[in-house]
UniProtKB/TrEMBL annotation:
<protein>
    <submittedName>
        <fullName>Alanine--glyoxylate aminotransferase family protein</fullName>
    </submittedName>
</protein>
<dbReference type="GO" id="GO:0004760">
    <property type="term" value="F:L-serine-pyruvate transaminase activity"/>
</dbReference>
<dbReference type="InterPro" id="IPR000192">
    <property type="entry name" value="Aminotrans_V_dom"/>
</dbReference>
<dbReference type="InterPro" id="IPR024169">
    <property type="entry name" value="SP_NH2Trfase/AEP_transaminase"/>
</dbReference>
<dbReference type="InterPro" id="IPR015422">
    <property type="entry name" value="PyrdxlP-dep_Trfase_small"/>
</dbReference>
<feature type="domain" description="Aminotransferase class V">
    <location>
        <begin position="21"/>
        <end position="330"/>
    </location>
</feature>
<feature type="binding site">
    <location>
        <position position="339"/>
    </location>
    <ligand>
        <name>substrate</name>
    </ligand>
</feature>
<keyword id="KW-0663">Pyridoxal phosphate</keyword>
<dbReference type="Pfam" id="PF00266">
    <property type="entry name" value="Aminotran_5"/>
</dbReference>
<dbReference type="InterPro" id="IPR015421">
    <property type="entry name" value="PyrdxlP-dep_Trfase_major"/>
</dbReference>
<dbReference type="InterPro" id="IPR015424">
    <property type="entry name" value="PyrdxlP-dep_Trfase"/>
</dbReference>
<dbReference type="GO" id="GO:0008453">
    <property type="term" value="F:alanine-glyoxylate transaminase activity"/>
</dbReference>
<keyword id="KW-0032">Aminotransferase</keyword>
<feature type="modified residue" description="N6-(pyridoxal phosphate)lysine">
    <location>
        <position position="195"/>
    </location>
</feature>
<keyword id="KW-0808">Transferase</keyword>
<comment type="similarity">
    <text>Belongs to the class-V pyridoxal-phosphate-dependent aminotransferase family.</text>
</comment>
<dbReference type="InterPro" id="IPR020578">
    <property type="entry name" value="Aminotrans_V_PyrdxlP_BS"/>
</dbReference>
């Protein structure tokens, strides 16, 4: 059977809604023109509620990693001590960036698939017995599908030492979670365009509070393209320091309109509904979930097939026969887990497609009927939300 509509269920990039695609294809305008100023002004403001930020959100024309790097180079001086929580591949990314530029990097390792234990982390900070400038953590660790308790972490950190900057990488969940810089004690919150914000790849976002903004101007670490002070100065003139991706800026505005139509609270609730329903469906398929319920991300779900052969069969057959793309594991979880992304413009019924395809594939592979088992569980949970 031919499937005419491929379904992209990786944890980024995500399907791009038609309205956004359309906006990105409008005729080009000069980036030093009043036309672009109007687009940029709207985009900087439009992202504030999504990030729970008081200040306009900075937009960089570069991938998400640039915002991870910028959040270090603009907060930490060369001799400062910084702490990175590593709970997966993207914690490792933070670590690699930190070790590229800094000598005093302290790593707090968290077992992959688990969330950071906040009291243990504070004990770790105490044991370092030194002045820490900044702490870096993922919000959703995409490689394991864990959502860390960032608000609890932020508050515990500030209670321990309120001079420490708390930086959160929200690349794979901003747009799908309720976050607020002030309420959650976050100083800098970064993200990228190609995940729950459902744009094509190519933009990075930096939200910050006033304290962080002040710090950006004081730090002496060398940086050029990623000097956030340049972006702040340009932003005050509704502009950017370097040629921006004008098309994607338009996409940001189209995204904001879609969120306004649906209501941001409803967008968040939809992601949680899908998470909860999918988890029940996977359990009905006797697929083990990597993450415990209380730390499961609303944007991506990781599960462990019974064998490597089963894993390969699921991933390949979903793609070849059903035109559904899901993701494998990263780092030492490669070949161990599969991940289904469910963020952006994904409806509960889109996910029903992958659930029913899994029923068919596992019925074949295990020679035991799963038909109707997982979709029943899925519908029982999802019906409470739709
Ligand atoms: C949590 C997280 N941080 C950082 C990145 C890196 O973003 P990019 O690939 O856009 O540079 C990703 C990408 O998947 C991510 O999921």
């Amino acid at each position: 059977m031919k499937y005419y509509h491929p379904l992209l269920l990786t944890p980024g990039p995500t399907p791009v809604p038609e309205q956004i695609l359309h906006a990105t294809q409008s005729p080009m305008v000069g980036h030093r023109s009043s036309d672009f100023e109007a687009i940029a002004e709207e985009a900087f403001r439009a992202l504030k509620p999504i990030f729970g930020a008081q200040n306009d959100v900075m937009i960089l024309t570069s991938s998400g990693t640039s915002s991870l790097e910028a959040s270090m180079l603009n907060l930490a001086n060369p001799d400062d001590e910084i702490v990175v929580i590593v709970s997966g591949a993207f914690g490792n990314r933070f670590k690699q960036i930190a070790e590229t530029y800094y000598n005093n990097v302290h790593i707090f390792e968290v077992e992959w698939g688990k969330a950071v234990n906040v009291p243990d982390f504070i004990d770790f900070l105490k044991s370092l017995n030194t002045n820490i400038t900044a702490v870096y953590s993922q919000y959703c660790e995409t490689s394991t599908a864990v959502l860390h308790p960032v608000s609890e972490l932020g508050h515990a950190l500030k209670a321990y030492d309120d001079t420490i900057y708390f930086v959160v990488d929200g690349v794979s969940c901003i747009g799908a979670v309720d976050v607020d810089l002030q309420r959650d004690a976050i100083d800098v919150l970064i993200s990228g365009s190609q995940k729950a914000i459902m744009l094509p790849p190519g933009l990075a976002f930096v939200a910050y509070n006033d304290r962080a903004k002040q710090r950006f101007s004081e730090v002496t670490t060398p940086r050029f393209y990623l000097d956030l002070n340049k972006y702040l100065k340009s932003q005050s003139e509704n502009s950017t320091p370097f040629t921006p991706n004008v098309s994607l800026f338009r996409g940001v505005n189209a995204y904001a309109k879609l969120v306004e139509e649906e209501g941001f609270n409803n967008v968040v609730a939809r992601h949680y509904a899908i998470r909860d329903s999918l988890r029940e469906a996977l359990k009905a398929l006797e697929l083990d979930l990597l993450v415990k319920d209380e730390h499961a991300s609303p944007t991506v779900t990781a599960f462990t097939p019974k064998t490597k052969d089963e894993l390969n069969f699921i991933k390949n057959e979903l793609k070849n026969r059903f035109a559904i793309t899901i993701a494998g594991g990263q780092g030492h979880l490669k070949g161990e887990i599969l991940r289904i992304g469910h963020m952006g413009q994904i409806s509960p019924f889109d996910i029903l497609q992958v659930v029913s395809a899994l029923e068919i594939l596992l019925t074949e592979f295990r020679n035991e009927s799963y038909v109707g088992k997982a979709i029943t569980k899925y519908m029982e949970v999802v019906k409470a939300y739709v």
